[in-house]
Prior knowledge:
This protein is mainly beta and about 100 residues long.
Amino acid sequence: MFKNIKLLSDRILVKPDNPETTTKAGIILAPTKEKRIFTGTVLAVGNGKIIEDGLGFKRQEMEVAVGNTILFPRFVGVNMDRIAEATLILSQRDVLAIIEEKENE
């Protein structure tokens, strides 16, 4: 995996959950067209995007954090398979939702 990576702006490094399916015979199947929303775990985050706030510029806080489970669409991000197995770099704006663990009541 990555030993030292500094993501810039609002970028996040994600490990998708079950990025591919393998048959009993060991054949790796590509994701189907029906699956359009994926989940993944955030491995690293940038320090936030610089925005103008009317009085100057400020850094917008990241809403996602390392360890979050997120939802994201199928065709976003940059595939980083050549550097680290089954990872993507996305922009925070590509994240549809953060899945929060439900507390036992």
